[in-house]
Write a structure and sequence with these properties.
With 324 residues, the chain is an alpha/beta fold. The chain folds into 2 domains: 170 residues, Peroxisomal Thiolase, Chain A, domain 1 (3-Layer(aba) Sandwich); 146 residues, Thiolase/Chalcone synthase (Peroxisomal Thiolase, Chain A, domain 1), CATH 3.40.47.10. The chain has 10 helices and 13 strands. The mean pLDDT is 97. Bound molecules: oxa(dethia)-CoA.
Length: 324
């Protein structure tokens, strides 16, 4: 039997209207535009309006991707949504948007892999398509991460933003996705986590409630090292050389981490999609938002090879090498 590949046939994205600049944050915490830009590359971030949820952003991104693909919601066999900020505990945000889209009946579930959520979702859907069980699928990465930011903590509040991206995938006889790599190491929990939840309760020992706890410098070091070996593994899994990669579409957490990965790939920064300056770190939203920007701006063209990667809490890290 001829192999089946999954191909991205369209992308979509959604960002909240409200933009918060570094200058705005200077009025809230002891920070400076200079510090934020030089340490992270971030200039601004979008923040969800009161009442605007992860599901709202996911729905808008998904609708746009489906329209661009010319695919009707009821043709979908599967919806997988990466998020660590679901609207409610259950049903999953994937189920909530399935109903809003009118795709009732197909499989729908969320994946919580922190910032690697979209990459995990893409890897899972790719496998379902390869088995022949799924013909058309929607993969979404969506977050309202600023809802769990402590706005008094300058070491984290400057880093994050809200947003969503989506792709429509279809079974094809040619690549498509060559390889995906998914990893986690729960031993690193203490470096990046949110201490509260349904089962442990919503107040932690320090009485802080929902908030992101991060040892930035340590996360930075592990991220650079891990992404280095992830790139190597992904090239090997796809049977490719660095020179065959046309674009790097990385997780958008920190420009310095992105530059390190580009260097490892021997790619000039002109071949790297950077949106961290505009969006900040949108966790699961980051890679699909960057991909949609790359496609809509005309940078990424059909037939080019893209390396997508992400790293986040868990730790989790994941990648995909695909022909667009
Ligand atoms: O997406 C999930 C994965 N997450 C990441 O990949 C994040 C990885 N980490 C990072 O991106 C960086 O470590 C940060 C951007 C979070 C921090 O940059 P850094 O260069 O590692 O700075 P640092 O944490 O070592 O802090 C340096 C100094 C400290 O002051 P002292 O101790 O040197 O006096 C901080 O208190 O900068 C201070 N600082 C700030 N100053 C102004 C921390 N946050 C701020 C701030 N404004 N917002």
């Amino acid at each position: 039997m001829a192999p089946i590949y999954s191909r991205i046939i369209a992308t979509g994205s959604a960002l909240p209207e409200r933009v918060v600049t570094n200058a705005d944050l200077e009025k809230m915490v002891e920070t400076s535009d200079e510090w934020i830009r030089s340490r992270t590359g971030i200039r601004q971030r979008h923040i969800a309006a009161d009442g605007q949820t992860t599901g709202d952003l996911a729905f808008a991104a998904a609708k746009q991707a489906l329209e661009r693909a010319g695919v009707k919601a009821d043709e979908l066999d599967m919806i997988v949504l990466g998020t660590t900020t679901p609207d409610i505990v259950f049903p999953s945000t994937a189920c909530l948007i399935q109903h809003r889209l009118g795709a009732n009946g197909c499989a729908a579930f969320d994946v919580n892999a922190a910032c690697s959520g979209f990459m995990y979702a893409l890897g899972i859907v790719d496998k379902f398509i390869k088995t022949g069980q799924v013909k058309k699928a929607l993969v979404v990465g969506a977050e309202t991460l600023t809802r769990m930011v402590d706005w008094n903590d300058r070491s984290t509040c400057v880093l994050f933003g809200d947003g969503a991206g989506a792709v429509v995938l279809e079974a094809a006889s040619e690549p498509g996705i060559y390889a995906t790599c998914l990893h986690a190491d729960g031993g690193y929990k203490e470096l990046l986590y949110n201490p509260v939840g349904v089962s442990v309760g919503f107040t932690d020992e320090k009485n802080h409630g929902v908030r992101i706890c991060m040892s930035g410098r340590e996360v930075f070091k592990v991220a650079v090292k891990t992404l280095d070996s992830l790139v190597e593994e992904t090239l090997q899994a796809a049977g490719m050389e660095e020179s065959q990669v046309d674009w790097l579409i990385p997780h958008q957490a920190n420009l310095r981490i992105i530059e390190a990965t580009a260097k490892r790939l021997k790619l000039p920064m002109e071949r790297v999609i950077v949106t961290v300056d505009q969006h900040a770190n949108t966790s699961s939203g980051s890679v699909p938002l960057a991909l949609d920007y790359a496609v809509q701006s005309g940078k990424v063209q059909r037939g080019q090879n893209l390396l997508l990667e992400a790293f986040g809490g868990g730790f989790t890290w994941a990648s995909a090498l695909l022909r667009f």
